[in-house]
Amino acid sequence: CGSSGSSGGSAPAAGASVDPSTVSGSVTYWDTSDAKAEAPTYQAVIADFEKKYPNIKVNYVNVPFGDAQNKVKNAFSTGSGAPDVIRSEIAWTPELAADHYLLPLDGTSALVSADDFLPNPVAATKYDGKTYAVPQVTDTMALFYNKKMFAAAGIATPPKSIDELKTDSAQIKQKLGKTGFYLRGDDPYWSLSFLYGEGGDLVDANSKTVTVDNAAGVKAFSTIKDLVDSGAAKTSVTDGWANMMSDFQSGNVAMMINGPWSLATINSGGGEFTDKSNLGIAVVPAGSVTQAAPQGGQSYAIYAGSKNTAASQVFVQYMASPEAQAKIFQGTGALPTRKSVWAEPAIADTDEAKFFKDAIDKAHQRPWIPEGGTLFDPLKTEYTAMLSGKESPQTAAKNTGDAYRKNLGWK
Ligand SMILES: C[C@H]1O[C@H](O[C@H]2[C@H](O)[C@@H](O)[C@@H](O[C@H]3[C@H](O)[C@@H](O)[C@@H](O[C@H]4[C@H](O)[C@@H](O)[C@@H](O)O[C@@H]4CO)O[C@@H]3CO)O[C@@H]2CO)[C@H](O)[C@H](O)[C@@H]1N[C@H]1C[C@@H](CO)[C@H](O)[C@@H](O)[C@@H]1O
Q1: pTM for the whole structure
Q2: pLDDT surpassing 70 at residue 12
């Protein structure tokens, strides 16, 4: 576990605020944003920070998202080479907080105008009644579609249900010779909107019950597999992100489910979306019970063992400020977490904000518990086995449920 405080004169008492103009030092920040499409924007915002606070030096490190959580846990557990501030994926925060790796931020200068943050991102910063992170960006998933391909196939509106998605895919296949939908097969986060659409969920944290293999879960797994078996969707259990983005941007598929974090790549990727007005964004298609998409997002968190907590607090305060959030949105399309930023006309009037504001308020809440992030590894094993044809949907759901019961000790 990380130490509770930090040595060195600059460390304010836990829970104390600091006067930014008196702070000097350095901050090592680990950023997991996409190195090509997003990181330049974050680095530009950091440059603005260093201009405003010339006595604070930021050591920026870009850490690829895929293996970042392990790197963070290893660094925090040994303390050697540990960053002062991390970009904490929202499911990491309760896990890292439970391990005492994060500084509680209530009452510190890192967390200002706390009531300006949207409630859903705030919920994911709390653990055991304390605040361990400051919201950066928030997201949920949506149906991204190619308007030109839909028009060429004679389809007027995006599908609102999975049944409609199958019908539209058949029409796209018949009229354009293309596959309708890309189903990401190597990351089970892309299964959640189907699970929620059947009225299911991975677990019920309140009753500590595993639900992924109940009737709704089995139905969801079957629905996903049927999309591929019926030819409505194509998938790959490796390199899913690259294959999905390449197929969508080149017009090999007309639809994908994705999040606003993909906009930076789409908007700079040319192809079918050189003309940005060709990108359509709609709610994810509903299952047989309801329509819902998961909440995701990223926050700033400070290492409990940091030797630069004052400088880290000033850094987080700036990076989470309305000014910085607006720049991050303009540069990447990633969604703000402050109400005041959503209200700015330059942001509120964009097509993306108009769509996503409603969608993120309705995002399906996940259990923000230390075990939350650990649910994805067993799910990935079974999700990919099913999509590879090695297991039936029933077996995949059951094996996932059994793994959860073993790992969590829940019923
Ligand atoms: C397996 C992982 O399961 C979960 O992660 C879920 C996550 O909980 C979901 O919320 C969802 O995250 C959204 C995310 O909210 C959304 O913002 C976006 O992020 C964008 C950025 O926006 C974009 O800027 C850029 O950075 O790129 C980001 C990524 O695109 O999209 C994400 C969805 O991709 O989905 C995650 C799973 O992907 C665990 O939390 C672990 O991460 C776990 N990985 C560890 C597991 C260790 C072994 O235990 C292994 O040894 C370790 O090495 C692995 O690290």
Answers
A1: 0.95
A2: no
**Please, which pLDDT band fits residue 50 given cuts at 50, 70 and 90?**
very high
Please tell me the predicted confidence (pLDDT) of residue 17: 86
- What's the rounded Cα separation, in Å, for the pair 292 and 403? 25
DSSP for 123-185? HTTEETTEE--EEEEEE--EEEEEHHHHHHTT--S--SBHHHHHHHHHHHHHHHSSEEEEEE-
Cα(36)–Cα(43) distance, rounded to whole angstroms?
12
- Please tell me the predicted confidence (pLDDT) of residue 1: 39
Residue 11's pLDDT band (cuts 50, 70, 90): low
The set of residues, in sequence order, having a beta carbon less than 8 Å from that of 354 and lying 6+ positions away, is 348
Identity of residue 264: A
Q: Which residues are registered as beta bridge partners of 282? A: 143
7, 254, 293 from 359: Cα distances, Å: 44, 21, 8
Q: Which pLDDT belongs to residue 96?
A: 98
Instruction: Yes or no: say if 2 and 98 are a contact pair by the CB < 8 Å rule.
Output: no
Using CA of residue 321, residue 31, residue 267, residue 353, what is the dihedral sign?
negative
Q: How far is CA 83 from the centre of its chain?
A: 21
Report the run of H or E that residue 379 belongs to, with start and end.
helix 376-387
The pLDDT value recorded for residue 16 is 80
Assigned token pair, 100: 């005492």
Pocket of ligand 1, beta carbon within 6 A = 32-34, 38, 65, 67-70, 89-92, 139, 187, 189, 259, 261, 296-298, 373, 376-377
- Looking at residue 308, what is its pLDDT? 97
What are the phi and psi torsion angles at 407 (to 5°)?
-75, -40
The residue nearest atom 3 of ligand 1, judged by CA position, is 376
Average pLDDT over residues 51-56: 97
Ligand 1 mutation pick, 29, 67, 73, 89, max ligand atoms within 8 A of CB: 89
